[in-house]
Amino acid sequence: MFLLSSILFIANSIRYELERTLNSLPPITVQKLQAGRHELISLQKLDKLLDIDGVQSAIPRYWGYYYFANAGVNFSIVGVDIFDKAYSDILHNLLENGTFGNDGMLVGQGVAKILRENYYKEYFNFVKSDGSLKQVNLAGVFDAKTSLESNDMIFMPKALVQEIFDLPQDKATDIVLQVANKDEIPNIIAKVKEIYPDSRVITKDDMRISYQNIFDYKSGLFLALFIVAIFTFFMIIYDRASGLSGNEKKEIGILKALGWRIEDILQEKFYEAFIISFFAFITALIAALSFVYLLQAPLLRDIFMGYSVLKSDFDLPFTIDFRMLSVVFFLSVPIYIAAIIIPSWRVASMDADEVMR
Amino acid sequence: MITKTIARTSLFLLLLLVLFFVSELCFLYIYKENNLHVKQNFVQFSSLGDLAISNEAHFIRHRTYADTFSIFAISPELLENFPSTFVYHYPTIQNTSKMYRE
To answer: pLDDT tens-digit profile of A131-181?
Structure first.
């Protein structure tokens, strides 16, 4: 029960965090596809996208993956406009230390740790596409509270991202659209598709469905663990239900000889089984809550992180799904009680002397 | 068989456990809720979704933005050659002679 509820708590919290942070994402992302693959999008498309009714703003994004071979890890590099006031206001709350300048980069906790381990304490040398090095100073580190999101991220001015990835000046990775009225999103998607048939338009709903797919994809693993836990539990249940031990039979026989009725014996057995199973249920939940939310799920978190080099803090948001709790409850407590009551009833309905003999 | 004293003690312990469980829920609810706003701010700042828990695989970090068949690439060393196969890309500092098994 402890293992099962711990895994369910972790899965629920990740799902909750993804769903909550999803709302902060831009509603529409427009990408260019060429030969079935994602390509850089031309900035000339910005004006036509802005002309579509209902589009509030169209912002080009500059981001990509930088593979740091020495550590065998991918960093996600994002280029931002440092003169944008909206950014500086948000940044103030997000940074653990440091400020953002023209030639600096802001990194997540995981990136900072990997860089330190590779002796890059004040700067990092990015290898550009022509093989030359670009030195970028380490300007600040993001707060550990955002570690689940920011762990592998590097933020730097977009000019630096363009230089490191050798992006042409008139192209961006993709374009995000802000929309005033979310009911207009399907119309806007249709118009973008009509103007630029080679584009891929991603909405928040697409991302929500994609998260669902990730959980379906990973749920095979949960199911395997779930089956192991359930199988073990039912082995115990089978053992209990297949018959009472000699001592337990003798106990029921003595009670019957003393004048107890069948319902008295069953009532006593019910209380006994209920106390034992409910005790186990509550103890497992308390242990699972502390294990997942206070101790950050040691060992179990590796199932979710795989073999990642950049291990992030597993500071999950607390959420409780009462449906999940009731499933765990009904799979354990009533079944255990039934496995005690049924054989007891079978023995109690026999004659006292027959049972004791 | 359960005597009255054992029954009372067990019920008392059970009640204590339930109280402890409820207080742990309250503690976690109050303490844990705060960080979510910071996280939402961060996602708004980066405009990129997903969690950084399996960052070696492209499809986990930003799966929605990945190519259709990137789901098969489970490591950064495995470069896509064709949707069903990989090319193993080893770090330049690695001694390649040790990578073969004859």
So the answer is: 999 999 888 888 878 888 888 889 898 889 999 999 999 999 889 999 988
Task: List the one residue out of A315, A331, A302, A340 whose CA is nearest residue A234.
Answer: A331
Beta bridge partners of A126: A134
Cα distance between residue A103 and residue A101, in whole Å: 6
Q: How far apart are the first and last CA of chain B?
A: 67
- What pLDDT does B99 receive? 54
- 3-class DSSP state of A88: helix
Domain parsing of chain A, residue ranges: 61-158, 216-356
Q: Match 């949707």 to its residue by tokens.
A: B83
A17: Cβ contacts below 8 Å, ≥ 6 apart: A148, A316, A317, B36, B39, B51
| Whole-number Å distance between alpha carbons of A218 and A73 | 22
Mean pLDDT of A48-57: 90
Measure the CA angle with vertex A281, ends A279 and A283; round to 5°. 65
Distance from CA of B80 to the nearest CA of A (A): 12
For residue A76, the SS3 value is: strand
What's the pTM? 0.75
Q: Looking at CA atoms only, how far is residue A251 from chain B in angstroms?
A: 7
Kindly tell me if the per-residue pLDDT of A93 is higher than 90: no
A105: number of Cβ within 10 Å: 26
Query: What is the rounded end-to-end Cα distance, in angstroms, of chain A?
Result: 38
Are the C-beta atoms of A89 and A212 separated by less than 8 Å? no
A215 Cβ under 8 Å from any chain B Cβ: no
